[in-house]
Structures are given as structure tokens and as C-alpha cells.
Amino acid sequence: MLALRPTFSESWYRVANLKAKLRASAQISRQFYRGERWYVVRDPAGNQYHRLSAPAYRFVGLLDGTRTVAEAWDLVGGHLADDAPTQDEVIQILSQLHAANLLESDVTPDAQVLLRRHKKMQTRQWQQRAMNLLFPRIPIWDCDRFLVRWMPVVRPFLSPLGVGLWLAMVISAGLYLAPRWGELVDAAQNAISPNNWIYLWASFVLIKFIHELGHAFACRRFGGEVHEMGIMFLVFVPTPYVDASAAWAFPSRWARMFVGAGGMIIELFVASIFAFIWGNTRPDSLVNQLSYNIMLIASVSTVLFNANPLLRYDGYYMLSDWLEIPNLANKSREYLWGLFKRHLFRVKDRQPLPPWGQRAWLFLYAVAAGIYRVFIGVMIILLVSTKVPVLGILMALSAVATWLVLPVVKLVKYLLLDPELHRKRIGAIAWTAGIVAMIVALVGMVRFDAHFDAAGVIEPLERQAVRVETEGIVAQVAAFDGQKVRAGDTIVVLRNPQLEAQVAQLEAQLRALKAKRDLAIKESQSHRLMFEEQIRAVEDQLNAARERRDKLTVRAEMDGMLIAPRLRDLPGSYLKKGSQVAMVASLERLALYAMLDQNDAHMIYQRRLEQPDATSARVRLVSRKGDELVGQIDNRVPVVVRKLRSRALSYEGGGDVPTDPSDKEGLRLQTPMVEVPVVLDNSGRNFLPGQRAYVRFDIGKRPLIENWVRRFWQLLQRHSQSKWV
Asked: Which one-letter DSSP state was computed for residue 657?
């Protein structure tokens, strides 16, 4: 159903007698969107643009400086009938052209007030951008002469031959890297290490400078002028930018899309070159490291950010041109808001509905972009809070004001004051109140099953260390890691030449004393007693030495599984007395030691006090996520720890527990956590010591808002490492 467009306006008298015309310097280009003709008017002096529909351009074309606005409107109405712009639309066209400095006129005081409205709106938008601490811009260089000078060199690369060369290089690099995917993933750990940050930042700035040059050369390739290049700050990170807005006036949408893709095209080409350099240099060399940095930034960041149409970067403008929907983001938000007004408030929109072919795209884009931008905003806030906690808090408060408080204020103002709700205000307020009540009830009153998820490592409840009781050199390893052993089984055999020599010496001394004693029996009773006393002393020494020699064979003292990951590296090494060579663990009862936030652990044990039978926890092994097993929360008092039991739980070990980056062992936690033991019945041999697992603790039914608020503050506190957050 077509929306009604009021023909007349109460403010028409302010502009009806105005005589105006486009500036002589204005440049006009024609474009087609979904078969409809549009015109882009550009002021080259101020680099201002405005897009006009065909009827609007027909009206503007009638303004020659001698004909009044009313006369031009009457003429265009006679020619176009219902397709002619309404008086409100004419006022909007004149306001926008006046604000863009594209209109010459002798403006009367009444018209000046009206035309300034749009100018004030633009001024407010400019002030908002200027006050945005995350994305300020500093223009530095007029690069147009540079582009003209180098265009003969670059032009062949922007031709069909250049496209073929680009495809060949990118495909070759992809085929070259595919078999080395494992090496690429392993190298990523070194790329994000603190020692590489300065190189990573330098590579980022260099690649983004090349990226912006790609946009600039692509724009110049189709005749556009590029007069501004500078530095903008993305979350305080200086990043090059270029103003290639001249591409907006290109008649061909494919030319506009090529300009939008120019930066990504050159980035992927550079990434392909450095892929070959990375693969043919020593892994420990600086060239190899820098090549990986450039390859990573020029490929991953291009795909995740520049090519992402949900962010206002290159991918967004390319999608807008491909769909032939100018100003896609604003139109999608207006369309979504229009749906609410039409279907909930029963308000007839003053603007006509978009064509059927655009509606699905507008709806999907509005929903997806809104959710994604909130997600990105939260991620940026958490990133900033890790470096500057106070600023992170301020940004979080600003985000709440922007995404919650301001929309609510605007909605209330609309419901109470907007004239278009005349005779529909009570119904609109009732609908809004009902929806708000449903949301409040759903989020704040209705209780849902709540739980905590935590990572942990499995260890045996019953275990015994296998230690060396007599120092020596490892001569033989008689067992292996993971072997089932029984009490008395040999684990390691050591050799001690000094001890062997001592035993041999004492045995020889004992034989000599016994021979002397046998001779003394015939000669003197006193001599015999003396020798027997010496024999007993030597026998005691010999028995002690033999006992020490027997302990060179290290044995298991209980039944269980042998845990000794370094056992095979022991042959030939010297072990001191007391050195641990292995661990024998019983596999019957194991424990999963889960790492939890202190508040979460408190809620778990508080629920146990309220419901003593609520002791079960659901466990999933990382290696077998499809199988869910059951454990019991141990009755032992949980302890607050500052170090992990196993590095497997940390980021470096493949886990998700944050550790202190300055800790070389990778075990010290960023913030203290509670270690909650969960006892596992292992009669079915489902678990093995050392395995990593996830455990889910149910805490009953709770309102959603309670869980969300707790999670948000815990996340913010964890990232800011500040207790007062």
C-alpha cells in the first residue's frame, strides 16, 4: 500500500517567493539505481555532494534565478503530476542544497530560518564526530598531484591485465600456504606476543597507508580527484585515511565498487608477495617475522573489517552500490522504525515505502548491523579497559547512554509531543507500555535455568610420587608413561659405581676378617672376640650398602596408572636422592579442578546450603565434547588460588583462563580465582589424568537481568584487573 504524501506545507510561504539557482561551479553527474535515474550534484570547492531524484532534479533545473520557487513548483507539477515533489519535499531539497553550499539565492529572513534547520543538523552531526574521542581525523596531505604523476605507472595494474596478474598472485599464494596451515597457526602465537607489538604496529601503519593509496589510485583511475589524506585514530591507534568521496559521483556503480575495493585489492596482493617471502626465510629471522606480520594484517584485517558490510568501511559502500540502495545504513534504520510506526502505532508514514525488492535487504541489514555494532562496541570497551581502566568505565557509561538512555528519551519525546501521533497517541503509548512491560517481565521477573561454565583439569584423588631413594645414573627405564602398574613393579634402574665399589670393598673386608677370626680361634680367645666384633660392624655397613644398592631399582608402591611424561628422557641422567621420576595414580576416583570467579563459586556453595542434594555437575571433555558425563561437587572447602595447576588451562596452552603475560611459566592468574573440585566416578575409565574439560554448574532459576549484570561487571573487572570496577 502506497503511503500518502501531503501535497501542501504550512511553511511554504517562507520559500514560495524565493529566487534561487544552482551555483555555476556545481558539477552534475547522472546515475542509475534499480533502473531509476538519479543525479549527483557536487560543489568542487567544498567537496560537498547531494543526490537528487529525477523529479527533484527536474524541479531544481527550473530554478534559474529569475523564476520563483512557487513558479517552478507549479511548472513541475504540471509536467509530472503525482510524481512531482511535494511542498515539504521541496523545502527539504532547498535546505539540503543550501547546507551543501550548492545554491545561489537572495534568501529572505523567513526562508533563512527554515533553510538553516538542515545546516544546524549538519553542524550538530559534525560536532558529534569531532567530539568522538575514538575516531578523530587530522588531514595532512593533498595527494592529487602525486596521484596524477604516478598514474601512468599504476594504470596498467588497474587494467584487465592487472586483474589477471592479481588473480594469479593471490591464487598462487593460497595454494602455496594451504599445505603450511599448521605453521601459520603456530606462528600466530609469536605474532601476538608483547615482543612483536612494535613491529606489528609498524606493519599495520604501513599496510594501511598502502591500502589508502589503493583507494586513491582507483578513484583517480576513473577521473575522481583526491585532495585529502591524513591520520585518523582508531581507539587511539593512528591509522592513515584518504577522502575518495569523489567516487560518489561516478555514473557506473561498478566503478564505485572498484574504488571501494581498491584498498583490499592491493592489500591482498601485498599479502601474497610476503607469503612467499615468509615461506622462504629462516623462522627465527627478523625478515620472516615482519613478513608474517604484513601477511597477517593485509589478509585477516581486510576480511574481518574492511570487507565486512556491517561496519561502515569498504564492504558497506560496496554492498550499498551493489544493491543500488544509497545511504543503506540510514535507510535501513528509517525503514525499521517505519515498520514499528505503521504496524504498532498505526501511523501513516509521510515518506513512500521503498520498493518491494529493497525491503528485505533493509530489514535484514538494520537488524544485523545493529547487533554487530553493539558487539564491536563492547569489544572495544573491553580492549580499552585492559589498558586504561578509568577510560573503559567512561566509555561503558557512554555506551549505555548512547544505546539505551538516548533512544528511550527520544521515544518518550516522540510519544508525548510528535504531531503525527494526533488522535493515535493513547494507542501508541499503550502499545509501548505493553511492550516495555513484557520486556521487563521477561528480563526481570521470569526466572530461567541459570548455570556457570568453567574450565578445569583432571587429576587423581589418590596418587603417590615415585622418588629416588639412592642417587645414581639412570641405566634403564623399565616402564612408560600411561602404563598400568602394580605395587613392586620396576620403573627405573639406576647405576652407582661408587656404591658398587663400596659394596665390593666391604665384602672383601668381611672375607678377610672372617679368615683372621678363624685363625684366631686356635691362638687366642680374646683375639677371636675382637675379630667377631669387627665382623659385626662390617656386616652392618655391608647390609646398609646392599640395601642402598637394592634401592637403585625404583619401584611402584601402589597399583595404578604411571604418570611420567619425561620418563623416556631420563636414561644417562644423574638423579639425586629424593628426585621424583613419576607418579602412580589410582584411576578409580578422579577430580576435576574447575577454575571459577569468586562470586560464581560463592553462588554455587550458597545453593548447596539451600539445597544440600544439589551436588551434581555436568562435565564434557575437550577431546569428546559430544559426551556429557556427571560429577559430584566435593565437600572440601574451596580454596582461592593465584596459580594454575596446569598450563593447559591458559591461553598459551589452548585453554581460556586469562594469565599474567609477564609470567614466563604461564601459570600466574591475572586475578585470583577459586578452585572447585568435582569428584568423578571413573569406573568406566572415561577420564584420564591431565585431560582438560568443561564443567557446568546449575544454580537454579534466576532472572535474566541478574545474570547479565553479574556477567558484565565480572567481564569488565577481569579485563580491567581492577577490584573497584
From this structure: B
Nearest Cα residue to 91 out of 109, 113, 67:
113
Q: Which of 542, 693, 532 is nearest to 620 (CA)?
A: 693
Write out the DSSP string of 88-136: HHHHHHHHHHHHTT-EEE---HHHHHHHHHHHHHHHHHHHHHHH-TTS-
Task: State how far the alpha carbon of 274 is from the alpha carbons of 519, 610, 696, in Å.
Answer: 92, 61, 44
pLDDT (0 to 100) of residue 318: 92
First-to-last CA distance in the chain? 53
Per-residue burial over 612-628, b = 16 or more CB atoms within 10 Å of its CB, e = otherwise: eebeebbbbbeeeeeee
Q: In the chain, where are the structural domains located? A: 12-131, 137-324, 326-445, 463-584, 586-720
Grid cell 601512468 is found at: 152
Contact 602, 613 (CB under 8 A): no
Alpha carbon distances (Å) from 250 to 24, 43, 48, 133, 439: 20, 14, 14, 33, 47
Eight-class DSSP state of 245: G
Question: Taking every pair of C-alpha atoms in the chain, what is the biggest distance, in angstroms?
Answer: 155
Q: How far apart are CA 215 and CA 50, in angstroms?
A: 21
Tell how far CA 574 is from the center of its chain. 48
Q: What is residue 212's predicted lDDT score, i.e. its pLDDT?
A: 93
Residue 166's pLDDT is 94
| Parallel, antiparallel or unpaired: strands 490-495 and 472-477 | antiparallel
Q: Which residues of the chain have pLDDT under 70?
A: 1-6, 45-47, 106-135, 189, 192-194, 234-236, 349-351, 383-389, 521-525, 614, 652, 714-725
Residue 587 has a pLDDT of 78
Q: If you count them, how many residues does the chain have?
A: 725
CA neighbours within 13 Å on the CB side: how many for 658?
11
Cα separation, 329 vs 31, in Å, equals 20
Q: What is the C-alpha separation between 452 and 698, in angstroms, rounded? A: 7
CA–CA gap between residue 336 and residue 259 (Å, rounded): 30
Of 2.40.50.100, 2.60.40.10, 3.90.650.10, 3.40.50.300, the CATH number of 463-584 is: 2.40.50.100
Q: In this structure, are residues 240 and 231 in contact, taking their beta carbons and an 8 Å threshold?
A: yes
C-alpha torsion angle, residues 521, 525, 529, 531 (rounded to 10) = -40
Name residue 164's amino acid.
Answer: G
The residue behind cell 548447596 is: 608
Strand partners, 27: 42
pLDDT of residue 135: 59
pLDDT at 50: 78
